[in-house]
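User: Can you predict the 3D structure of Acyl-CoA dehydrogenase family protein? Sequence below.
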Amino acid sequence: MDLTLSEEHEALRATVEEFARKVVAPVIGDIYERGDFPYDLVARMGAMGLFGLPIDEEHGGMGGDYFALCLALEELARVDSSVAITLESGVSLGAMPIYRFGTDAQKREWLPALAAGERLGAFGLTEPGGGSDAGATRTTARLDGDEWVINGSKAFITNSGTDITSVVTVTAITGEQPDGRKEISAIMVPAGTPGFRVSQKYSKVGWSASDTHQLFFDDCRVPAGNLLGERGRGYAQFLSILDEGRVAIAALSVGLAQGCVDESVRYAREREAFGHPIGHYQAIQFKIADMEVRAHTARLAYYAAAAKMLRGEPFKKEAAIAKLVASNAAMDNARDATQVFGGYGFMNEYPVGRFYRDAKILEIGEGTSEVQRMLIARQLGL
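Assistant: Sure. Here are the predicted structure tokens for Acyl-CoA dehydrogenase family protein:
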């Protein structure tokens, strides 16, 4: 029951906290406002080993665990979520499918550069007409000799169009199962493959410094050996990847929620109204106290999910609970922090303005809040 971080985890947390405060915070406002991708910050995170935290040393990683990644995400998101989601997607959606399900040859080819942050990987599951209904996949892949021929499109894909993106793993219909259901497999498509087109980046409400695109595949040919994992197991494989990812998104959400507390406490001490700092007034005190309660509770939820995951126990329900509680906390805290800041909270030059813009997607991405409730109910036997 001891929730104290190990020496290794605490050292990592402190290192990332310092990086976020001293390196990310001074520059991210301008990067976010321009809608640029933070290549320099990504390179520095790669040099720190953050992209390789849960990957073994044999494949270029740090040999740590998934909880270490979560701690890094929380500290980054206390300052900015665009940088944090670039790390989260690059690891949990880009590298981990290859790490979990790839052949030895696939791991040797792709993981070292992904673990070093020199390259980014992406995960193409969502489609324009699918959304949360990932089983509604329409993208197809048929074998033609020793090549897969892929046709279709994917939507809202993070890290898919940067100059350092190396591979996108896509789910596609590769046949029909004996019971008539779609056979869905996962296939790796290297960046620059003929027939693979990346559209213009989306104009988004938030996460303005992260990379998100729609992808198109028009008779895109890749070697048959680019199949990731077993044929027909692509959907099941990525459901397990999403369980891990939900714990990571919960950690990121906690970071945003805690960042709202940090900024509000600082502002409440400095801003004066009616002859006193606004933190003198009980209305502001109670609002910030409620924000701290949400962040603290959400942190306990993702710690509990991560603990079960690391012990090798089933954690689907706990991951859904953590993601639901933490994303709600992020959204509620962002709204309250904006209220504490008043008119300044509506200005992009203040972090809470970015936090408010970034919070909403956390209730949608990697499974909506409604999907989390559905998963929790199913795990209860309903």
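The radius of gyration is 21 Å. Strands lie at 120-124, 140-144, 147-158, 165-176, 182-190, 196-198, 212-223, 227-228, 272-273, 276-277.
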